[in-house]
């Protein structure tokens, strides 16, 4: 083992030399002797000892106590006080119980040897502990998520830079404050403020996940969706010493989820409901008609006339622009409570809800044909189009939306056989 490097602080020169000689005879490396605490600070900064032997009557000098604390707390170097028994008796109670910190005079060579070994062991332990703390602090501070550590009372002990950034609180301002005051959380699903989660995990000893739809209200009023959990902190014997809250801004994830949901139910080109969403709304309409005998609805199935010719003549880019324009025209022909959907290619469907009879559906079909018949100008080109439309009305025989939609499709097919710009109402007798 490497011999510890020692600095001796002694205001009596002869006593200092005597301590130095004794230590060196025991195999220790005494770097220097100084006679004041002020010069000791400079020596510590210059020569970086592992241990400082302080032989000044500190019980009578508060200034020396302060400088000794700087050596121990700021430089993280253990101080072994060589003091008279009378001075020791005058020490504050909290000082008397510090382990490995005092050697009472007069002392023998064996006493000095044992005291230095114990002090050096304490130095090594403190150094290792400090290194672990610094390593852990570096890891926490470099994390991309926010970390907040609390005491067992639920009050804040530390925050990393990301937590400061998200909450709007600096660590020195937040220290000692209730967690819920600094990390102001709202459960959006329950529409209620989330209480101090630290006290909950400290009481139960269990990890608690943040609510699924949790929002952080920052100090400046920003609303940030966050997610993750809070867990109890345990020491080496399992006692809970606090709690650690880890969370991150999930705005992008939420936006991604919204986009995925939109992609699943809406047509990527026109923005209209796709077949999945249309069938879901149609199923709801069927269920509604079973509960309300007076409720009527209809499905219109549309197929554009000559769309392939438009693609062949002007290109697929123009064809896509044309479909978007058609989608807007179809939406203008129905009420806000009705649904216009695209099934792919040039096929569209319309769900007309709460109508009186078949005439309402026919009137909408005629309106659509009149609107589509108006000239459409795209990129300087005038395009004319029409559509064939099949109409199917609800009845007690429909339990699944696919059947009603299939019948509207059949009615459209029969209308198309008669020419362009036609419409037809599904008649079970004609289709059997």
UniProtKB/TrEMBL annotation:
Residues 295-428 form the GGDEF domain. It comes from Anabaena azotica FACHB-119. Residues 132-205 form the PAS domain. The keyword Secreted does not apply. InterPro entries: CheY-like_superfamily, DGC-Regulatory_Protein, GGDEF_dom, Nucleotide_cyclase, PAS, PAS-assoc_C, PAS-like_dom_sf, PAS_fold. Keywords: Phosphoprotein. SUPFAM superfamilies: CheY-like (SSF52172), Nucleotide cyclase (SSF55073), PYP-like sensor domain (PAS domain) (SSF55785). Residues 210-262 form the PAC domain. NCBIfam families: GGDEF, sensory_box. This is Diguanylate cyclase. The modification 4-aspartylphosphate is found at residue 55. Residues 5-120 form the Response regulatory domain.
